[in-house]
Design brief:
single chain; alpha/beta; five-stranded parallel sheet; three-stranded antiparallel sheet; 28 helices; 13 strands
Amino acid sequence: MSGADETLSVQLLGSLRVWRGEAEVVVGPPKQRALLALLATQQGSVVGPGQIIDALWGPDAPNTALNSVHTYVAGLRRALDPDRRGRESDGVLCSRAGGYELCLPLGAVDAVLFVRQCEEARRLAAQGHCRAAFERLGKALGLWRGDALSGVPGPFAAIERSRLREIRFSAAEDWIAGMISAGRCEEAIVVVGEAITQEPLRERLRYLLMLALYRSGRQAHALQAYGDARSHLREELGIEPGSELRGLHARILAGTVDDALPRSPSGAAEPASTVRPDPTGRAEDGRPVAPGIGPNMRQFPSRARTFVGREVEIERARMALRRTGGERGRATPIFVIDGPPGVGKSALALELGYELLASFPEGQLYADLAGTGDRPRAPFEILGSLLESLGVGRAALPVDLDGRATLYRSLLHEKRVLILLDDAVDTEQILPLVPQGSACLIVTGRRPQRGMVARYGAHRISLKPLDPGPAAELLGELLGREAVSGNEDAVRRLVEQCGRLPLGIRITAAALQETADASPQRLAVLYEDPVTRLDLLAVAGEDGMSVRSSLTASYRALPAMTAHLFRLLSRTGLAVVEVPESGQLLGVNRSELLRHLELLADLGLLTRLGAGSYRFDDLTLTYAGECAEAEWVLSRSLGPARLKQVVADQDELRTG
């Protein structure tokens, strides 16, 4: 075997890729790739032409299949072993009596290495070496980059894909059980939740989720998880949960949950409670390490079932990523997404994040910065949560902001990780959370993060309401074709009444599906009154699913004088705000008025039309009128002087 062969490696746990050192090898057409996948999984064995034909074509093989096999073998040899001469017997792809053999070093094929490491983990667990078994499973699962043999055609690839998927989830169950035994329940909840989205019928995953929730002190959520599992099994298969799941449910209700973990189908002993990561977050040589980093560090929330529009924004992000790089050692690509309340910033961020998974395969980090909440999270607190996700023990967390930021950057150095920071306040909150090097950062927030653009060359994506076509399409997709058929005009009216905002459209779809006799025509009539519409655009019991609460979050972020002008503008009756005219009406000078109007536009409470020109949409104008009415009622009860003091106190609290 030539010296070049020693660095040849084949990746099957995701898209099929072949590497010679750091250079990727072009494998060839789909059937040739399928042949390589077959030979790679049978590494060390001779595969005959008949097996190859069955694997690539199945019973529908053409008469020319054998000739095609010879062509694909020759093509693979040119790709894998370019220095091979003529009919030399040695090389990477060798001819043997009865067929062909792929000759590669042990560990050169990730799928073979994965299976071997899983088998070693089972043996170690059976021998009582639980920590070593847990670590071996983590390494094995870290080899995955996506669905196995993604895009590889043929009967063999389909069967092998299913086999490897089963082994993967069985190993993931054992690994999650190890995390729970080690007391890492919050981390286990994230990992098992992601696994359930991919394999919702695996009862052992449901068991582990319930147990992790219960041990985290979330008994109600554990019981809810059982209800979700039961509903799903009934709906999909018409069956009740199995005895283990029912038994855990009963013990949670009775408060008698013990330390028992669900039986492993592989027969491996369960990892003991002594399995814990190194709390210092450092390797033996003192260098920072991140034991949590890997493809199984998947913290992104589930994305929306239906996502429509934003093709232009996603394509621009793709182009920006191609320009920026995203490869190991390159500058961190940063995307900042801003826009008015309910425009779909988080939905786009998740859609973009899942789009970029293949480019950043070493894990996902997620943090809700609570920028529109009553108490936005401080960078010190956020870094603590992120570092714990990266495997740093709570006792080992640095006690100062700079120390946490430095450790965070060190752990992520040259790691191709995706980080999503949702609902940011401003650049000051984000700056300590910016990694170095090869990670990709996505930030959402209502205010434009101009500081991130200036400092890091971040790519800004400023969202506006959906265009009429995609807005109607979104409501149609949510309702279904039958509900929309014949109601196209009403659907178009409804989305316009929602301001073409995805939040309002989704709430409208939920309202139409909840009531049997509801129809787009009737709801469109009710929506004609903006006050009634603002009342109806809410999901009962869901604070985050309300247009009014979304507007309130922006309103509460306003300084007292800006909030006062916001209310006064509603009294003018002007849907379009022109600076000179409004300045006269409100009694403030032009520069001061411009500053306040720009802040209102930054927070999505006004829309910029041009220089010195802004527009209220009817829902925001209605909301501003409600705020003005509430202020008037409060002034009547408190008196002007007391009201002024209350407003001043609130403004001081808001600005910290």
